[in-house]
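Per your request, structure below.
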């Protein structure tokens, strides 16, 4: 992600998607992209029936 932030050099906003089914993974990825200097974070994760079942 740091590569993208450096490459665009403020010519556009960089929005990172950090959606995971596991909350801990999503939080960890959000922290990492924040360190890389992204402008925003979007959470989207298409879930499948089996993933929802496993989650609960």
């Amino acid at each position: 992600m740091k590569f993208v932030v450096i490459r665009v050099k403020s010519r556009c906003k960089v929005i990172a998607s950090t959606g995971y089914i596991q909350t801990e993974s999503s939080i960890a990825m959000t922290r990492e992209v924040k360190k890389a200097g992204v402008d925003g974070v979007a959470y989207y994760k298409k879930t499948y029936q089996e993933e929802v079942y496993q989650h609960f």
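The radius of gyration is 14 Å.

Regards,
D.
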